[in-house]
Fold:
Amino acid sequence: MTSLLEVRDLVVSFGKTFSVGPVNLAVNRGVIHFKGPNGGGKTTLLRAMGGELLPSKGSVCVNGQNIHSVVQARCHIALITSTPELPAFLTVTEAYEFSASLRGASGWDGKQYCEALQLDPKLPLGYASAGQRRKAELICGLAGDPAVLLLDETFAHLDEPSAAQLSQWIGDWSSSRVIVLAHHGNPPVAVDQVLDVCRNDKSAR
Amino acid sequence: MGLSWTIFVGASFRGLASVKLIAIGTTAMATLIFGYALHPGVAYLAMFVTITLLPFGITGIRNQLVQSRKISPGHLVSAWPITAMIRRDLLCLWRLERKSLLGLVLPGVISATMMFALRVNGQVTGHAAFAFSCGFLAFAVTPAFEILTRLKTRLGPDLMRQRWPVSHGDRGIALLCIMGVLTGPTIIALGALGSTMGLAYGLLFLLFGVNTIVGLTALFSRTLVVATPMLGWGLWFLFIHAILAITLPPWAYATSAFISATFGISIMLKGLQMFTYETEVGNLDQFA
Structure:
């Protein structure tokens, strides 16, 4: 039986000096915490798992489909990065409509998430604060209800009520989805599995 | 030239005012071209109208550009990722590059007017009409390549992200459609106004238009990973393409157009692959 998220011998390396992994995972639901120091390779691993970086070795499969070779498999996995990526000329609504349409979920509505996070759906992202952009990125990641969520330092920049709301959501989602958190400290949610991530720095040896 | 400003102003207004102004400008231009065929003295009338309208036109455009800064909601809900990308990119151009879009309308209007004048007063037909249409099209769509490079500057890596659930083919089709939206009105206008070229040359002109769209998009995709916008490539492509279409025998041009369009699509896909690889992997690799 295939797992919802299956990571096999995942290694990402840049040049000859830096590499992270190998990582092995096979999970159907729950919260996984990628723990490690700054620069340890947590974000790099998440980016490879989200389909953004091509791994040097190994594979990442969602529902048995390799996300690096099967385009449609990427509809079921969302990477919410720690750096703002959404174009400034869009409003919050347009941004999540676009993300949902890319995932083939044009009927998806993000209004409830905007209300819960107290974010104006008509707010142009160019005028948004760091926290508001973070909320918008989170809602875009949720667009289309992907089964696997990769959250990179998502609690940073969020105000207390929003962080509490996100913790509650993660608790609710953990029974049916896989949530991978990259967080350098202890995340404010109950985790099912902790994975220590440390890069293999050959130049330091 | 002066009357084309009326169309410009019309295009920058909204609703009924826009329709009225465009109608007035187009009718006035058409009337003066017909009038010139009857009496050369009409040229003096055209000069008078131009001098009167030009300042009004420039002021009108400037005012409209300033007023149009407020954001009107765009709807990016779409059942297909390709249409979502097209809508998002056009919204980007509409909100951030409106001046560039106006810069595309000007040579389009001039070319269409010239073609109309040639049809009415020059009575060009057959290969001559085809040659003029190709030449005018190559001139008119020159800013389209620059507009796509501006789109890339505005979107950056968000032009296409490796993690998106879309293939390079989907992104390529979306870019072709955007280029089609930018150049399509001019192709249709020149094809219709140059319809004296006949059906066979008409089809060849259609092929010329499609090949222009594919060629410019392929060049754009190929230059995505180049830091400086290589606008000269687009100009050279348009110039050489027009020369080939005009000088080659129709069968030879049609054959070469089919081959180059296929080759162009392959170049476009390769360029997009390089872009996603460079933006997602290559940048990090530099720090290793």
